[in-house]
Specification:
The structure is a single chain. The chain is 70% helix and 0% strand. It has 332 residues and is mostly helical. The protein is globular and about 55 Å long.
Length: 332
Amino acid sequence: PRRQQHPQIPPKQGVLLAAGILYGGTCAPGLVWQDSGMIQYRVWHNDIEGGLGLALSHPLFYVLAIGAKSIPLGEFPWRVNLVSALAGAAAVSNLFLLLYLWQGRIAAALVGAGSLALSHTFWAHAAIPETYNLYVALLLAELIFLWLYMHSKQQRYLYGLALCNGLAVANHMLGSLSLLVYVCLVVFWLGRRVIPVRTAAVMIGCWMIGALPYEYLIVKNIIQTGDVAAVLQSAAFGTQWQEEVLNTRMNGTIVKENLMFLFYNFPTPLLVLLPIGLVGACRKGVGDAFGRINMVLLLLYFLFAFRYTIVDRYAFFIPFYGLAAVFIGAGC
């Protein structure tokens, strides 16, 4: 049978431009404080590693921010802040494109993209230098490539997925959660002979190319210290956050606050579309494999952030918000 043709894609440049104007016009104009101030300080000193362990190095973001520092446009702090604004705009436009490809409806794509664009935590992190919005942009790019592969069976899209996930891991270790899902998918496809071993090998190569900034720091530290186990532990957890990352204990206060985060970010009746989209993805004849893969990712990112115990864990819900907006659009 003939392969399905891609639906005609409306230009997403308009969404990218609108989100860019929104975030560029509202991002912090100068110096900021706390973690974001530390990011500005590190960029000023061209420090892509930091001193809190490799898991908090986020080298891809710093490479981009150091590049932005050299552009003679406005004040130095604003240029660093603008990296997050542009990353947020890219994430919103990627979400619009993903939803239009999957659902084929501009209204659904606009509702989903608008829900993420105006959610409080995502917008706040588009105003200050942080790594999360860049991560969401790469996560949604991964899902675009996954949809294109599942729709066309062209293996080049798998290479794009692997490259984007490598870049995502080089930006933030949150990328290891979606990496786990993709590894399971590839193993399943290899077992069913959907893809050849050569394709999986090329995917590994593409992933390693994307993750090069992080791999460089890992190899550099192994050479300097000679302690492979300590460096790998630093790459996974940083210097002191292993207990929080692996936490399984909950209490009523954390549960209440986490639910408040959700309603704070989607404080409109559009939130009702989220369970509708999830049910639709499960229903026989309506749901599809792509939707169920997205549900697995949504659950993984939700559970990771929900039982995390650090003070600023609200920021770790941002990938979940991006995936929730996908299902809000699907529910529409």
